[in-house]
């Protein structure tokens, strides 16, 4: 089962690569702007999610360089050099294992340049937010980490709604953020198992 919302009325912009977040949306703009500060405000929470297991580093890092698997590329000029933006569906499994329902939400995902200088993997800046600032999909900015022993996401997220949203986060939004992060990592690894198209 699933619910899809393709609302595109609000398109925040420019969250990664060391840039402070900006937004074209008036509602929630302060939350978006605060997430990338060096000293996060009280409405910003830390997120660290890891999915262990053997990883084909070369394939996963290649997927981060070419994000077409995420969805439709969106032209953008107000982000750090090398950043690509995609319009996609993020999934929130409900409950976290997704046995009963998966809530889908139109979202903008930014991928930055891949750093492959480490011997056992790569890393890349990543950020996402709902295209309509839906309350169950927090704004996230951080990095995706790929190693031979697994993949992970580390960063900060801010619930839409500022302090009110932060209070709700203590009860619900942390579960939403972690569930969406786990889904994203599982999807990233699953893409390495998709058969190549025949010619």
Report on the architecture of this protein:
With 199 residues, the chain is an alpha+beta fold. The protein has a single domain, classed as Alpha-D-Glucose-1,6-Bisphosphate, Chain A, domain 4. 22% of the residues lie in helices and 32% in strands. Strands 1, 2, 3, 4, 5, 6, 7 and 8 form an 8-stranded mixed beta sheet that branches. The termini are far apart. Mean pLDDT is 74; it is low at 1-39.
What labels would you give this structure?
3 helices; 199 residues; globular; eight-stranded mixed β-sheet; disordered N terminus; 8 strands; alpha+beta; Alpha-D-Glucose-1,6-Bisphosphate, Chain A, domain 4
Brief synopsis:
By secondary structure, the chain is α+β, with helices and mostly antiparallel strands. It has 3 helices and 8 strands.
Write the layout of secondary structure elements.
Elements: E1 2-3, H1 29-34, E2 45-52, H2 57-65, E3 72-74, E4 84-94, E5 101-111, E6 121-130, E7 139-147, E8 150-158, H3 162-190
Parallel strand pairs: 1-5
Antiparallel strand pairs: 2-8, 3-4, 4-5, 5-6, 6-7, 7-8
